[in-house]
Amino acid sequence: MASYTAYNLRIILILTLGSLTFGYAYSVISGTLGQPGFLLYFNLGSDNSHAKAITGTINGLVCAGAIFGSLNVGWMCEARGRKETLYLTCFVNIFGEALQAGSINLGMFLAARFIGGWGIGMAVVLIPLYQAEISPPSARGFLVGQHGTFAIFGYAIAGWVGVGTYYSQNLALQWRLPIAVACIWPLALLLCSPLIPESPRWLLTRDRNEEAWEIVSRLHGGDKDEDRRLFAREEFYQMVQQVRADNAAWTSGGGHRQIFTKPSYRKRMWMGFFIQYTVQSTGAQVIYVYIVNLYQNLGVTGGIPLVLGAAYVTVATLSNFCGSLLLDRVGRKPLFLAGMIGCMLSVTLESVMIARFAGTTNKAGLGMGVFFSFCFISCYGGGLDVVGYVYCSEIFPTHIRSQGVAWSLVGTFLSTLIYIEAAPTALANITWGYYIIFIILTFINIIILYFWCPETRGLSLEEINEKFGDEVVIHLTNATKEQREDLANTVQTHFDEKTMRSHSHHEV
């Protein structure tokens, strides 16, 4: 089976600028909330209920905006295409982040947080979807896994920029510069976007088969290698036939209402939502957004909590990349389950350390608290974060993929909104007891995922239909020897006829 080409990799890496856009903009607030200049400017330095409520609102608004941004992409990707949606995503992110960096009062900052959230919601849906549709089956886990890797790399960059500006004597620069840096990634993506083709699968849904074939052929290296050329033809033929069958079933079945009325589609929609809800129900965003406060509770003071926070997401970047290397070898489901178990155990031990040693001078106990936080993010990055995006981008058929991924990511932001909004008050009143909720939820979700979610490793996007009881017109990656021989003959005939029609057209 053909692996990825240099052209594949180039597109994937350009698209990861969108992953950086999401990761940096989503996480920069974690360091901002620890910047003296920000707290002083908006009068949030006092430890009272008003300050806690505003902090929760600052975090909650970006999630609320992201929900609307996700749903926006779900519609626009299908109606206008992946590439046109990419342009709008870049503009919304640039505008939202610039508005935050230039805010002159709290009301303006809160409004800008909502707009910025809208932009990152668009980016986090569009990028893995786009990557999945131009990746070969044998390497899709690794290639789409770069979205999670670079999103967390964005977290790491934001963390280290925050560390650098913390020591600035200019209180405005302390918080405005890190937020302004968020404009760099969508601007770079916008400038590089002419190098990215439209998704061939979307083009097929619009009967633009010639354009789609040119892109598929180039993705597989053109005519440079006979095996690659044959696989490109087989994969394209599979795409064409599956799109035709899916479109016929879609039209006869009643259109969009099938998303939640057809059992196989409904199952996929709730499964995608469940996967993203599960990722957030480990407590990951609560731990990260309030990581500075967590380390302060463990006796770490000054600028060291910011340094540890930046190191925390740097470790997450490395674990995400390691997870992407394993995805196509061990599969999605084993890696996800291992990550969930590791996160549950790490949060349990972290909670014990906070309960037992927070507020004491026991350096060993406090040090173990820091250690278990790094254990948590290693399991989260390498097992959950990297798998979640890949899985949700591949379980939907082409004609509802954008809506499916959008709905899945609504699960992320809705869960995060609830957990983050409650966090300031919960952490102030029940402290480590808040983490028990995540431990219980993760335990329940492990059982559900084990029995409910199928494995998708190595299958083409079209063949995953079979995992949900839908028709697969052409089997390619899992075909028998006889099926492959029949397919090769059929594909050869198909392309011979196509060539003859093309010659006849030119002669006329």
What order do the helices and strands come in, and which of them pair?
Layout (H helix, E strand, L loop, with lengths): L5 H27 L3 H6 L7 H32 L1 H20 L4 H28 L6 H27 L4 H11 L2 H9 L7 H6 L3 H11 L6 H28 L4 H4 L1 H18 L3 H6 L1 H7 L6 H27 L1 H26 L5 H32 L6 H29 L3 H20 L28 H27 L1
Helix pairs in contact: 1-5, 1-6, 1-7, 1-8, 3-4, 3-5, 3-19, 4-5, 4-7, 4-8, 5-6, 5-18, 5-19, 6-7, 6-16, 6-18, 10-11, 11-21, 13-18, 13-19, 15-16, 16-17, 16-18, 17-18, 17-20
Spell out the helices and strands N to C. HHHHHHHHHHHHHHHHHHHHH
- Amino-to-carboxy terminus distance: 39 Å
- Strand percentage lies at under 5%
| Secondary structure: number of strands | 0
Structural class by sheet pairing and helices: mainly alpha
Give the CA-based shape. globular
Describe the sheet with the most strands: none
The poorly predicted ranges are 503-508
Query: For the CA atoms, what is the radius of gyration?
Result: 24 Å
Residue share in helix: over 70%
Number of helical segments with 4 or more residues: 21
Task: Tell me about this structure.
It is a single chain. The chain has 508 residues and is an all-alpha fold. 79% of the residues lie in helices and 0% in strands. The protein has 21 helices and no strands. Mean pLDDT is 89; it is low at 503-508.
Features:
about 500 residues; mainly alpha; 21 helices; about 80% helix; disordered C terminus
Task: Give the gist of this structure.
Helix content is 79%, strand content 0%.
